[in-house]
Amino acid sequence: MRVRGGSSLLAVICALAASSQRRAYAQDTDVLTLRQAVTLALKNSQDVRLAQVQYNVALGEVRLDRAAFLPNLYTGAGVAYTHGFPSLPGGQAPSVFQLDYTQSIFDPVLKAQQHAAEELAKNKKIDLDRTQEDVMIQTAEAYLELAKVRHSLELTGSERSSGEKILEAIRERVQANQELPIEITRSQLALARVQEQIVKLEDREQYLEIQLRDLTGIPDSEGLQLEQSEQTFTDQLSANAASAQAEAGLVDLAMQNDHDVAEAENQRSAQEDIFHGAKLSYFPTVNLVGQYSVLSKFNNYLEFYQHFERNNVNVGVQITIPVFASKTRASIALAKSQLEEAEAALGSKRQTARLDVQQKARNVRELDAAREVARLDLQLAQETVQDEQAKFDQGRATLQEMEQARLDENNKWVAFLDADFARQQAQLTLLQATGQLAKVFR
Question: Which of 110, 174, 342, 434 is most buried by its number of CB atoms within 10 A?
């Protein structure tokens, strides 16, 4: 396989994610595509489930705060013994049945708490999105690294085969007094290093397989064959961010999609609502109230009331006017300081996000350059193998020289795979920073 300029495995991700004709894993084939792996991981992740439950709890708290401004109807029944004036603790008359209606019409503090809860609930949705993106990143990196490790194992196996042939050729030359015995030790050392690399790659492959199975929920009894693709794609972050390749465009996307910035903005909005509600706490609160009660015949009402009516209906508006509330001024001062704190935090988050996305963009450019160097280095090694093969066929090169050229090519292949994987990781983090990651996989 020859590596072409401008190819990108991350673009392979985009192409795989954009395909609409994918079969479910293990139905008709045991090949696992990247999009299937991400989809399974999102369904299987306990972290995603926890984030979803926490978001649902936040929505429940919002509904609870909103309920104060909706009609509330309560009913109950009871019997009380009274001696003297018929009254219960709280001043109400004892009744065998009672129906109460309450609804807050104007309460700035409660309304501010409701709006603040709505803004903070948005942060739980952001946490859910962040968790999903983290699972996507983790799954994609495990999938791509596993593919890289398996490819590296194939190359290293060929490298070991070439090393064994070189060792055998050197032994023959030593026996013919054409090489010094030290060359045997040198070749054995090189072969041992290759074997050491194989052991490390096999251990890494086993770890990544376990990790990918844990993420996707694929049992050990099923195969884990990854999809292989040799298609060359243009170098881009994603189809959704194609028009934002310039650094300024990436910064704008980051400001719009950075989770930390969004959380800080929601926190500031919540503090603004609380500060606004605290300032309005000097105004009266207005509640709509109503009550229907059925009084008893045995609580001596006739002894204290000239006209006794068992069925009673009361409907009205309850207005509470704050005359002197010592904590109102303190509440306003606290809300103002908390708002200033939220605004300062927002400014810091925006600055951090701007610097972070710029650094990520620079990392991608640097790794692009490193990958291109590795690609050209590999291409040179491939062309060298072709030249050595031609010389070997013509009898102008030895088997040792031929196998050494193949050995160098395998080393360049492994170096290219490492450079390409590092570039993929940088691109994935940049996609996440600019809010394009979810669009790639969905």
Answer: 434
Domains: count for the chain: 1
Residue 210 exposure: Cα atoms within 13 Å on the Cβ side? 6
User: What local confidence, expressed as pLDDT, does residue 26 receive?
Assistant: 41
Give the pLDDT score at 5: 43
State the DSSP string of 324-341. Answer: --HHHHHHHHHHHHHHHH
Domain of 91, in residue numbers:
9-441
CA distance 108 to 114: 10
CA distance 235 to 378: 19
pLDDT tens digit sequence for 310-324: 787 888 888 877 777
CA distance 261 to 121: 15
Bridge partners of 286, per DSSP, are: 106, 319
Q: How far is the first Cα of the chain from the last one, in angstroms, to the nearest whole number?
A: 30
Confidence of residue 303 (pLDDT cuts 50, 70, 90): low
User: Max CA-CA distance within the chain?
Assistant: 135
The tens digit of pLDDT for each residue in 2-49 reads 444 444 444 444 444 444 333 344 444 468 888 889 889 999 999 999
CATH number of the CATH domain containing 77: 1.20.1600.10
- CB 415, CB 377: distance < 8 Å: yes
- DSSP secondary structure of 195-209: HHHHHHHHHHHHHHH
Asked whether residue 1 is assigned to any structural domain, the reply reads no
Reference 309, options 288, 324, 291, 293; nearest CA is 293
Residue 305 lies in a domain: yes
d(CA 152, CA 224): 17
In angstroms, the CA 156 to CA 200 distance is: 11
What region does 6 belong to: left with phi over 0, alpha with psi -120 to 50, or beta? left
Give the C-alpha separation, 209 to 224, whole Å: 8
For residue 2, tell me if it sits in a domain: no
**Interatomic CA distance for residues 208 and 201, integer angstroms:** 10
Least confident span in 149-158, 275-284, 309-318:
309-318
Confidence of residue 89 (pLDDT cuts 50, 70, 90): low
